[in-house]
Each structure stands twice: as structure tokens, then as C-alpha cells.
Amino acid sequence: MIRFDVLTLFPAIFDGFLSESILEDAINSGKLSIHLHNMRNWATDKHASMDDRPFGGGPGMVLKVSCVVPCIEAVQQMTTQKADIIMFSPQGKKYNQKLAEQLATKERLILLCGRYEGFDERVTELVEVEEVSIGDYVLNGGEVAAMVLIESVMRLVPGVLGDCDSSRFDSFSSGNRLLDCGHYTRPREFRGLGVPEVLLNGNHAEIAKWREANSLQRTASKRPDLLEDQN
Ligand SMILES: C[S@@+](CC[C@H](N)C(=O)[O-])C[C@H]1O[C@@H](n2cnc3c(N)ncnc32)[C@H](O)[C@@H]1O
Hints:
The protein has 2 domains: 2-154, SPOUT methyltransferase, trefoil knot domain (Alpha/beta knot), CATH 3.40.1280.10; 177-230, Trp Operon Repressor, Chain A, CATH 1.10.1270.20. Helix 8 packs across helix 9 (224-230). Strand 5 (84-94), helix 4 (97-103) and strand 6 form a beta-alpha-beta unit. It has helices at 15-18, 21-28, 65-76, 97-103, 123-126, 143-154, 165-168, 204-222, 224-230, and strands at 2-8, 32-38, 51-52, 62-63, 84-94, 108-112, 130-133. By secondary structure, the protein is of the alpha/beta class. The chain is elongated and about 70 Å long. Residues 88-91, 113-115, 117-118, 133-135, 137-142, 145 line the site of S-adenosylmethionine.
């Protein structure tokens, strides 16, 4: 069981995400819980403003340390479970499957979704956070990054996927440092294209050998950097 607390200014962005498919099943069966917190509830002025102009001038607005830190502290205290805190930022550590695997072992994760120019720098001095980026590009906010993290972590929580082998053989997973092999399903032939004969013969040893070779071949052609990383 893993608990996510998501701090955001736009909780409604998560509505469809949380109410569909595997994620909804995982929540209903108690394998994970997701709690959305609107940071605006910790605003202190009558306009409920969470952001202010940057000192020194320039474009954009900055999320106020005086609202964000009390919000994090209040959320932390909602349960006694120890939480790791992730702050989404394009400047953070690059997210990957290895980090997803590490996070899947945690009891509780607090996810901080920035907006505008991001958080006042002093948030990271007052609260121990890990800054995480989902790639070298800039989003409007951390909500999409939070969904990426939640979805990739929850696949690794035991019992969430119907077949526990599904994630073990996925590309990048630590059990399989290669890309996943190619997959085929019915019909056997479509517009003149068949499927590799070996997949139809029911010989599990030969199928496993073909899949391994196919994974290696795909990795060498699509992502040779992954093979270099293993040397
Ligand atoms: C417009 S961005 C701020 C960008 C910031 N001024 C910079 O250049 O580093 C607003 C928020 O979106 C989120 N965000 C944007 N790009 C992201 C990325 N690649 N990975 C994770 N979060 C991102 C962060 O939470 C960030 O605080």
C-alpha cells in the first residue's frame, strides 16, 4: 500500500486520471491511495493568492514560501506515515524506471506541483525535498509530471497489474535492462503480414529464446545507448 499526497493549485486536472482503468481499480482495492490538496487553502490573504511578483523584477509569478511550507507541514501531519517529498522541476534529477522502482518501495510520497515560475527558492532550504524532472522540456505545471510518476510507480506495486510478470519484462525495468520484445496478437495474418512462426509453435523455451534475441536486436537498433550503459 502506498499513499500519495499531491499538492497542486489545480486538483481538477486529476479527475479523469483517477477515475479510469487500472488506477481506479488499484484505489478501490486499497493498493494505493491518492489525496489531492489544493494549496490555495493555505493562502493567507483575502484573495487567496498563492503567488507573488519576483523580487528583482522580471516576468512571471513565484509560489510563496509562506503558503507552501505551512501547506507541506500540514499535509505531512495528516498521518504518522513517514513521507518522502518530491518537488517537480525541470531542473531536477531526471526521472527514469530505476527511480520509479525505488519510489515504489516507499510507504508515502508527497508530490509538489509547481506553477508559474515555480516555488520560492527558500522552500528547498526549509523542507527536505528531492527535485525531479520528467525531461528536458518545460511544462506549465507539475500536474502532468505527478501523473507520470504516479502511473509508473503504481504499476510496480505488487498486485496492481493483473499479471505480476507484466512489469518485470517491461523496457528499462531492472529485471530486464533491454527494451521489451515485439508483441503480436490475432489475426495471424493482416494485409499479407504474418507473425514470427516461433510464437505459434507452443515451445516455451524457443519462444523465450526468440524474445530475448528480439529484445537485444531492438535495443541495438532503437536505443544503442542502453547497451553502452551496461558495459
Ligand atoms: C513553467 S514551470 C517553471 C520553469 C522554471 N522557470 C524553470 O525554467 O526552471 C512551472 C512548474 O511546472 C513544473 N514543471 C515544468 N517542467 C517540468 C519538467 N520537465 N519536469 C517536472 N516538472 C516540470 C514544475 O513544477 C515547475 O515549477
